[in-house]
# Entry
Amino acid sequence: MPVGLLSRLKGRSTGYVKSRQGCKTCKIRKVKCGEEKPHCTRCATTGHKCEYEGTISIIDNPVSSAPNTVWQERRSFAYYFQQAAPSVGGVLDVTFWRTIVPQVCRSEPAVWDAIITIGALFESPEPCPNLTSIRRGHSQTLNQNHQNALGWYSRSVSAIRQQIERGRLSMFVGLISCLLFICIESLQGGVEEASQLYTQGVRLIIAFRAQIAAEIVPPANTSFLEDVIVPIFLRLGSIALPLAALQVDSLLEEIEDTSTQGFNSLRSAREGIVLIAAETQVFERECVEYLRETDNFTKLHDLTGQKSALSARLEIWHSAFVILVDSLRRTEVSPQQIGMGALLFASYEALFITLRLCLSSAQTDTDAYTQNFQNIVEQSEIALHATARPDGTQPPCTFELSVGLPLWFTCLRCREPRTRRTALALLRRAPRVLGIYQTRSVLTFGEQIMALEERYGMAMNAGQARASSALLKSTNPPGDHLPDSQCKDSEDSKIDLSTLVAAPDDETIASIYSMPAGFENSISTSILIPEEARMGPIRIFRPQDGLPQGTTEDDIARWKPSRDQLFLRFTWNERDPTTDTWRRAHEYIPTTL
# Structure
């Protein structure tokens, strides 16, 4: 985006960092140099080659040798520009993170402080300071980078608050700051804070759209908002939506699906499938609530129509994407493009399965899609290879569409033991932060769900629970609609979810990844893990925000929770051997996700 447009948005000229020892290129061009090293921002944003006379890259010098805070800030900016921005934005959003944001920071100190905070946290990602712990008064040892980061972040937040109080914060700067703050909070484990910031960002977008419609702000801002900012928020919401009730649906109202027009780039293909993914996840939640109701045939008709429409759009996207991939193969394709293509294919497979099964009550129906799950695993491995750094590790954080969602989906819904374990192993290799979530928390949860299902499945097959043969001979299979009126309180359930509250130790984790005895044989997955051993839809909620439909205060009372405690609600099917009927059971446990 041109600097002139940024100036018009702010209503004042764009300032520049005072320079005495600029790069050779800026000296030759007789323009001010910001002195960022090893490449100054001016050269980076204009495409010029940047060289300094007789200097050493500041990345090569340790923080302890920094003569003053200005040097430390410039060092962190360089790390942001070289390492953090490409990782957070991914190969398709590099313009925003490496061009637009650095341009804004020249005239906005709060944005400068935010991006150097991200640079410092990226340079020292482990152990990253836990803001939630610090805010609760717990002491924590911080290295110099972390101390700098917390100081800069505090300064940035204070500056934004002052602009808000004075009524001088532009929507443009507010949205960019919001995204940067979400990244900072996510890197430091502040999931709830990042979620709150996301909600505030969505409100800003809605207000910005209203201003554009009322012609209060220039129409030129529409392109930046809808083509740059909204897609980032939509991706973040899509990543988080399976667990958190973020306001993704509020963003969908003014977004047009252009998949029917074909794709001219991987970026347009990505935006197309993210839109379908967001709509599918909102739709899936409607289906989960429908499956709790009784004899609502009108709603079933409506949901069936929505399912058909979404499925048709997904297949149109897939056809257009295949054409795009074929055209790209006739040119020189970079490893990053190959990785993004694999990631989009994995995302397609996950959405394909979701739409096929969203109105099904039986968890065993997923067994028909084992090949699709295997495709997700194979494509995710290709995508991880493309984003790996030279040492084989992944960057600490990404806001890009990632392997996290399709692999997480596979960990929960695929019960074929080898495919499931491979998905978990790949998820363990993913970036530490995906969107607003810490990967290790999600990973631990997936490992525990798998262990619980397999343990209970083996117990059933060993005669310690209902015989699986009786389940298979049921005359009323769980594929039929299960009205919530047939559900009973989870106190009678056979599945004990209390083991999910505590994190497993290293020995337990090691045992999870080894194949259990008897699983090596070619036994049907529906027998290895019968219907009653499978966890169904998972919902996250906070009592102070209201209880999910069908949930009472008594359901969570045994945990003696505070009003702001997060809970997970689990659902699974149980068969009554006396009446040979199925009912839906529920359980609730506290979580720190």
About this structure: The two ends are 37 Å apart (CA to CA).
